[in-house]
Design goal:
- The protein is α+β, with helices and mostly antiparallel strands.
- Helix content is 27%, strand content 33%.
- It has a 7-stranded mixed β-sheet, sandwiched between helices. The chain has a 5-stranded antiparallel β-sheet with strand order 11-10-9-8-12.
- It is globular.
- Bound molecules: biotin (BTN).
- Biotin binds at residues 25-27, 46, 49-52, 55, 57, 65-67, 105, 115-117, 128-130.
């Protein structure tokens, strides 16, 4: 079933939803919209899908591509982590050995299943999610680095059902976050994150230091072991990506 805005909106309690066949990027469409957050933009394909750090996000038919726009809130640094965690909780029952990689990617069998990017536009925060769902294979450099739910589970998934469950999970997490702060999620996120190796880079005394994330505290303090074996703590917002 293709995604339908009216049905999705109804299932999400009247959230403003727009669904498109093909767009350049749901981030661009969402940014140009002049409605009050929260709202959701999804598309079946993107001709210029964006990834983090200026990368491209291949967005052929069969994947799930959406942007959820929220009102900015305190402790914004935690939103990428919380978004990936919400995605993990919705998908972990469908895929065995699903791993959350710092700060906001999902991997299975050492291949990337989903990516999240968060952009801030004035008072708005846009959470962009790309999830490989029904693709049967990937070409080029993605052939060895990407995987889809269908390739992992051996079954086709209904994109609209998946969209509704993921977005409703994200909205719930963000509501709880607004009410209770990061502390409320720290032990659950810590447990999921620490199940996998977490290589990170951190800016320390003006140089980039490589290491691994060993622990995450209730205020987002990250315990790092540098590749030289030194232990130190930094606020999670100072961690850079691994790759
Ligand atoms: C990453 O680099 O891992 C993040 C990828 C995020 C891709 C999604 S797809 C929906 C939204 N629109 C975009 O152009 N990018 C995000």
């Amino acid at each position: 079933m293709s995604m339908d805005a009216a049905r999705t909106s109804k299932a999400l309690g009247g959230l403003h939803v727009e669904c498109y066949g093909e767009v350049t990027s749901t981030q661009d469409v969402a940014r140009a919209m002049r409605v009050q957050p929260p709202y959701l933009v999804c598309a079946s394909e993107q001709s210029a899908g964006k990834g983090r750090l200026g990368r491209r996000w291949r967005s052929d038919k069969g994947g799930l591509y959406f942007t959820l726009v929220l009102q900015r809130q305190k402790q914004d640094w935690a939103v990428p982590l919380l978004s990936a965690y919400a995605l993990w909780t919705q998908l972990s029952s469908k895929v065995s050995s699903l791993e959350m990689k710092w700060p906001n990617d999902l991997y299975a069998e050492e291949k990337k299943l989903a990516g999240v990017m968060v952009e801030g536009w004035d008072a708005r925060l846009a959470i962009g999610v790309g999830l490989n769902v029904n693709q049967l294979s990937f070409e080029g450099d993605l052939a060895s680095s990407a995987v889809s739910l269908r390739m992992l589970a051996g079954a086709e998934f209904d994109l609209e059902v998946l969209l509704i469950s993921i977005v409703s999970g994200m909205l719930k997490v963000m509501d709880e976050f607004a009410e209770h702060g990061f502390r409320f999620f720290q032990s659950s996120i810590r447990r999921v994150l620490l199940e996998a190796d977490q290589p990170v880079k951190v800016l320390r005394a003006n140089r980039i230091c490589e290491g691994s994330l060993l622990d995450l505290g209730p205020s987002g303090e990250a315990l790092i072991q540098s590749s030289e074996g030194e232990l130190f703590t930094v606020p999670a917002q100072h961690l850079l990506e691994a790759g």
